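Subject: sequence -> structure tokens, single chain

Hey, anyone have a minute? Need the predicted structure for the following. Not urgent.
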Amino acid sequence: MSDHAVPAPRRRAGWKFLRDLAIIVVAALLASFLVKSYLVRSFFIPSPSMENTLLIGDRVLVNELVPGVVPVQRGVVVVFQDPGGWLGPAQGEDLIKRVIGLPGDTVSCCDAQGRLSVNDHAVDESYVVLQPGSDRVARTDFSVTVPAGRLWVMGDNRYDSADSRMHGTVPVSDVVGRAFITTWPVSRWSVLSRHGEVWDAVPDP
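Reply:
Had a minute. Here:
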């Protein structure tokens, strides 16, 4: 045997290491692809309708397990496909709003303090942008009972949001997922709260 020959066991160990490394890399790339394709999606904020929670140019991550695996909750921010007539032809296909009413809920506005009510429970929405000089979370009064299989959604910037007040309810089946974190720009990094302390107090219909 040559002094420079590599013993067979060592060669086999080297090939095994390279094979295992290749499997790990391929598995990691596949997992990343599956996560990005089926579990998490990035979404760009194109309008001021969710200010000041979300600003034009923000990017958010969307959990696509909602609503297929995880049910929609009141207060969550969701991305949904245009049910038809919400967007113009050059505005894309997806929108982002906050879920206010679930199927069967009665949503009404406004009470004496200018607040929204869900199932006769007044909701204190500290995140809503108000009109200067007004304490009302919406310009006009309304009352609606959400049909089965549908959602009532509204923007946080109530005076600059074309939402369910204008277009009606959204099919749950059109929901792409729940926006749960702002990722860009870096200065805007934050978790998107559903304000559970507010919405968990709303009674079921």
